[in-house]
Amino acid sequence: MSRRRRIYEGKAKILFEGPEPGTVIQYFKDDATAFNNKKKGVITGKGVLNNRISEYLMTRLAEIGVPTHFIKRLNMREQLVRQVEIIPIEVVVRNVAAGSLATRLGLEEGERLPRSIVEYYYKADHLNDPMVTEEHITAFGWATIPEIDEILNMSIRVNDFLSGLFLGIGLKLVDFKLEFGRVFDEDQDMIILADEISPDNCRLWDVKTNEKLDKDRFRRDMGRVEEAYQEVARRLGILPED
Ligand code: C5P
């Protein structure tokens, strides 16, 4: 690990320079943070599970034509991805009231929303990732109007596909966060899905019992966090061997 040039270290991942120009290695850590770094901990084995889960979901999405940064998994904790210019927006898609939406609008957690809702947050830790609108995004030049249209369309497709995929294994996709990046391909800029999709950035509830199988178990000190991530991998049929 130390031989490679470290490009960036985030809360749950480290990015290293990749073997080819335009590639990056994403290393998944076991570290977990919540409430903008105010709560910190370690979920043993989380990095291995998220590497696998994100590989699986990104691959399924690529199969239905959603362009992603994922190239291939390299080992238990690392995957090779395309280098992107990250768009500084977190896109949250919600199907069921939970988390900050339930708090902000006084909704009962678990209430199905009248329709799926897409929200944008500006990626800025020192500001606590404030919610912004398309107006802010385009006015401040974080993305162009065609780019944000593309991001919205892709986010809705991802939601439709993943909601069905998870329902098939008895899980409700309550909400999730996506990040997108810009690549220069065939002489034009293109937007692709980046970062990861895992129980770190999705809320997944068991359809029958509403048991939480995601990072809320860590955020709310509910215990059995690693087991919850394992259960998601098991239902996806990709539990890594011990
Ligand atoms: O906290 P909130 O209800 O706004 O989170 C909505 C969804 O986005 C959750 O699935 C959460 O895991 C994810 N999220 C994230 N990273 C953030 C904020 C939210 O992955 N910085």
TrEMBL record:
<dbReference type="InterPro" id="IPR033934">
    <property type="entry name" value="SAICAR_synt_PurC"/>
</dbReference>
<keyword id="KW-0436">Ligase</keyword>
<dbReference type="InterPro" id="IPR028923">
    <property type="entry name" value="SAICAR_synt/ADE2_N"/>
</dbReference>
<dbReference type="GO" id="GO:0006189">
    <property type="term" value="P:'de novo' IMP biosynthetic process"/>
</dbReference>
<dbReference type="GO" id="GO:0005829">
    <property type="term" value="C:cytosol"/>
</dbReference>
<protein>
    <recommendedName>
        <fullName>Phosphoribosylaminoimidazole-succinocarboxamide synthase</fullName>
        <ecNumber>6.3.2.6</ecNumber>
    </recommendedName>
</protein>
<feature type="domain" description="SAICAR synthetase/ADE2 N-terminal">
    <location>
        <begin position="7"/>
        <end position="235"/>
    </location>
</feature>
<dbReference type="GO" id="GO:0009236">
    <property type="term" value="P:cobalamin biosynthetic process"/>
</dbReference>
<keyword id="KW-0547">Nucleotide-binding</keyword>
<dbReference type="Pfam" id="PF01259">
    <property type="entry name" value="SAICAR_synt"/>
</dbReference>
<dbReference type="GO" id="GO:0004639">
    <property type="term" value="F:phosphoribosylaminoimidazolesuccinocarboxamide synthase activity"/>
</dbReference>
<keyword id="KW-0067">ATP-binding</keyword>
<dbReference type="InterPro" id="IPR018236">
    <property type="entry name" value="SAICAR_synthetase_CS"/>
</dbReference>
<dbReference type="InterPro" id="IPR001636">
    <property type="entry name" value="SAICAR_synth"/>
</dbReference>
<comment type="similarity">
    <text>Belongs to the SAICAR synthetase family.</text>
</comment>
<keyword id="KW-0658">Purine biosynthesis</keyword>
<comment type="pathway">
    <text>Purine metabolism; IMP biosynthesis via de novo pathway; 5-amino-1-(5-phospho-D-ribosyl)imidazole-4-carboxamide from 5-amino-1-(5-phospho-D-ribosyl)imidazole-4-carboxylate: step 1/2.</text>
</comment>
<dbReference type="GO" id="GO:0005524">
    <property type="term" value="F:ATP binding"/>
</dbReference>
<dbReference type="InterPro" id="IPR050089">
    <property type="entry name" value="SAICAR_synthetase"/>
</dbReference>
